[in-house]
Amino acid sequence: LILLEDIKKIYGSGPTQVNALSGVNLKIREGEFMAILGPSGSGKSTLMNIIGCLDRPSEGRYLLDNIDVSGMKDDDLASIRNKKIGFVFQMFNLLPKQSALGNVMIPLLYSGVDARERKERGLQILRKMGLEGRWHHRPNELSGGECQRVAIARALINRPSIVLADEPTGNLDTRTGEEIILLFKRLNKDEGVTLIMVTHNPEIANEASRRIYVKDGKIVEDTAP
Amino acid sequence: LILLEDIKKIYGSGPTQVNALSGVNLKIREGEFMAILGPSGSGKSTLMNIIGCLDRPSEGRYLLDNIDVSGMKDDDLASIRNKKIGFVFQMFNLLPKQSALGNVMIPLLYSGVDARERKERGLQILRKMGLEGRWHHRPNELSGGECQRVAIARALINRPSIVLADEPTGNLDTRTGEEIILLFKRLNKDEGVTLIMVTHNPEIANEASRRIYVKDGKIVEDTAP
Ligand SMILES: Nc1ncnc2c1ncn2[C@@H]1O[C@H](COP(=O)(O)OP(=O)(O)OP(=O)(O)O)[C@@H](O)[C@H]1O
Ligand SMILES: Nc1ncnc2c1ncn2[C@@H]1O[C@H](COP(=O)(O)OP(=O)(O)OP(=O)(O)O)[C@@H](O)[C@H]1O
Ligand SMILES: [Mg+2]
Ligand SMILES: [Mg+2]
Question: What is the pLDDT averaged over residues A159-166?
């Protein structure tokens, strides 16, 4: 499903150059639940953004469903991404002027769903996240963990076949975090959604069927057989 | 040191009113290390913002060092805050157009330190956080955990006597997180800094000398004798 060959990501040049990724080779099969661990600054989010077609590698090849997306144009990249991938950002990336409902409905705008159904599905998924009483709040009127749950709802609303979650429970208390992990596990087990999750939480990492460790822009360990 | 009497915080009115805090009574002594736990949306950050003089209560009294700050004017509140309190925000609140060093030096601007010493102390505390190689990066050129460490450095640079940290390790891997907790513990044990920390991390909560649990805007449990 996902094939990365010798992927590099370089920021800047000269003395301030940062090799955020320096040669990553990775194969991910459909339906896997893979956890990504590693120290702060090691390149996990950079790797996630490339897998999620939100950023292009500086070098290397990326095949998604056998399509070479490495050098694709922005529009083509965006349409592949919107159809197949749900992305939960580490910093949420919510639109500040939209309500929780407005934010959650955005992926449905791209897939041509009509206004009535957008609102219905938006409220439904917010209810699933325990946020029905907050649907009208803007991000600055929500707690950190509530923002995180809006970001998760937005990623799942379009029923993507691949979900990329960058530390989805960092701002959640243990119980809310466990509910979210249960939800992700069910998506993976029952609906076959491929799940790729950056986490610092050992409990989440233990739930995954595969773990990779990133350090200094390289994969240093991989529990795949 | 800190005395909260029947503190309330109300957002909005009518059917959409949110009672973020509904009657909080709390006494904190100098030199305590108190952890604040509770579900997402329960009012922890709202409580922290009031203790940190960043927000005013809707009702109730707040005495800081025997000074009634409940109804103080913005300027007086800001000068008390800058002198006594270091605040680590849950969402970091870094200035996007400033480098890591620029962000860390800001509290020193308010306390009249000259440019050369500001830069020296800024680089020193960034080095302590393991960020010397990133001092010139802006927030959008830093990882999530690197941003979090810049926010911690900014809170500590002015050697405040009270440090309020709202989930300071949510974006850090286990090892970096443990180093930060060790740093906070040393500040509390060796320098007598009063430490008030919101956390979802049981390891941090265990290190604290006192734990309070917030639920639906009230303190439901307090381990203080
Ligand atoms: N400006 C606002 N207007 C309306 N409601 C608000 C506003 N700010 C916060 N709230 C609500 O007040 C409640 C408490 O928010 P707070 O940020 O204190 O929670 P928290 O305990 O810090 O949660 P978390 O652990 O998720 O960070 C939340 O339910 C939130 O939706
Ligand atoms: N735009 C940029 N310009 C320069 N350097 C960057 C840029 N974006 C990220 N970096 C650097 O690349 C490295 C990898 O960043 P990345 O966000 O992938 O780390 P991470 O593993 O997700 O860390 P964390 O666990 O703290 O979120 C970091 O050291 C960061 O400073
Ligand atoms: Mg990251
Ligand atoms: Mg909070």
Answer: 97
B135 backbone φψ class: left, alpha, beta (φ>0; ψ -120 to 50):
alpha
Is the separation of the CB atoms in A91 and A148 below 8 Å?
A: no
Q: Which of A39, A143, A200 sits opposite B40 (nearest CB)?
A: A143
Query: Mean pLDDT throughout A205-219?
Result: 96
Instruction: Spell out the residues 6+ positions from residue B74 whose beta carbon is closer than 8 angstroms to its own.
Output: none
Instruction: Give me chain A's average pLDDT, please.
Output: 95
Q: Distance between terminal CA atoms of chain B?
A: 17
Inter-residue contact A197 to A208 (CB < 8 Å) = yes
Tokens linked to A10? 């370089």
- Stretches in chain B below the pLDDT threshold 50: none
pLDDT, one tens digit per residue, over A1-57 is 999 999 999 999 888 899 999 999 999 999 999 999 999 999 999 999 999 999 999
Higher pLDDT, B73 or A104: A104
Q: Can you tell me the distance from the alpha carbon of B114 to that of A192, in angstroms, rounded to the nearest whole number?
A: 60
- Structure-token match 């443990």, residue found: B178
Ligand 2 pocket test: pick from A7, A40, A46, A196 the residue with the most ligand atoms within 8 Å of its Cβ.
Answer: A46
Other beta carbons less than 10 A from residue B30's beta carbon: 12
